[in-house]
């Protein structure tokens, strides 16, 4: 056995098992990476190492971290984010922790990068070179993505007051390596992310696709003299769903937005310009503003477009989706979140805070005198997204369009606080759920679901936020559209302000601060329950302790519940902690200020 490679695999196991002792049988069961042992017939094994990077993408599953914000509460008392929100967030009790997960993924990716040149993927030497190039690109891209999530969850001001990231690991760690490494600066981590994304972009095609005979000129020149068959073999549509150049550009836009945000940005406008341009680079691949307007019919309801989802092919993306995970036939989301009368557990309950954030149909916030809002009839003439995303009292749901009664004196288990699975706020979740799922035990059905990693609307909102900070509401820099243009398109897609030319937006476009609040609110609405609000509040230096509100409806009277659940966060909690166990083991690591 190649003992050096064995050490690398053992260290990967250490990253996954923490402080548990490794016993000899476990070491013996680690399969060797000695090229002579698996080449050329078993390239699946080294490719499996790369798949460990994919398996650790944090957005593979829903986090519902909204439960730790002013957007939602949960009736599940064991929910980790609920515990975070109510004062139980510590450095050794952190449901948002990505330290072990992401560093384990980086370890596997570093192994792949070190070993990839030794693997014979196919016997054709030209095609083999293309395979090697592609897999290197995937590994660099995934490493950047995992580093971004490490910064999102663990970067912050250390006890020294400096903005710190995480240790930068560019090679596999072996048992003889020094694990006691200091944290790199936040800026150095960002530079490494950009460098890895550059490496991914230069090696990967924009998208995986097959070319036909006669289309040789379409093969990117960076791959040299290759045949159609050789190109398709390494970069063909078969590999759709894996990391691409398009994804690399989108991850760059995500990371740049984080770096430009108030909690991390010490350089002012320059980082906002950078973030806006990186987001524009992604949007421009889909027609710029057309990235929002061209999918107006389906962009809001991507999760429930039944015919679109039914016809999706492996790896292919609907118009709204830039990158997604594999689809599956299940009813998990509905089981967790349908109301009790539909045989669900009603877990995620949207708050009155979120409901109040949806404007009126004419585009005005409900607090504006011009809105026409009637607190005695609060759901009429509202933003259509409200009833798309939130199940309000009296609305229908499920395969039989069952009316859901959430009133305080309701006679079913859907009523406010009636049983353990009842709503705590007067609302149930509707977004993400397929209403054609049947949970009745006598006739239960599954439906097809998928989880996006990146949506074009996310990138469009990133552009709007950054462009407004860089150039103001109507400035464009070197691009063809402004923050105002993006927000107008998003609101028009939702059906907002169509009768009055969105007078509120028109009034906001002359003021950067007003537009900032509007952009942030649109981001809150469009991306609700998708895992953004928790991090957005922190990167904005926004208020974290806004109590979660609800509504009690009785005899037609709507009474606001001002504090269904308090939010208990200290000011230093805008940054997450370094895991306490890591601080104990490695004294070179500096904890973020405020955390013990």
UniProtKB/TrEMBL annotation:
<feature type="domain" description="RagB/SusD">
    <location>
        <begin position="324"/>
        <end position="595"/>
    </location>
</feature>
<keyword id="KW-0998">Cell outer membrane</keyword>
<dbReference type="InterPro" id="IPR012944">
    <property type="entry name" value="SusD_RagB_dom"/>
</dbReference>
<comment type="similarity">
    <text>Belongs to the SusD family.</text>
</comment>
<dbReference type="Pfam" id="PF07980">
    <property type="entry name" value="SusD_RagB"/>
</dbReference>
<dbReference type="InterPro" id="IPR033985">
    <property type="entry name" value="SusD-like_N"/>
</dbReference>
<keyword id="KW-0472">Membrane</keyword>
<dbReference type="InterPro" id="IPR011990">
    <property type="entry name" value="TPR-like_helical_dom_sf"/>
</dbReference>
<keyword id="KW-0732">Signal</keyword>
<protein>
    <submittedName>
        <fullName>RagB/SusD family nutrient uptake outer membrane protein</fullName>
    </submittedName>
</protein>
<dbReference type="Pfam" id="PF14322">
    <property type="entry name" value="SusD-like_3"/>
</dbReference>
<feature type="domain" description="SusD-like N-terminal">
    <location>
        <begin position="66"/>
        <end position="209"/>
    </location>
</feature>
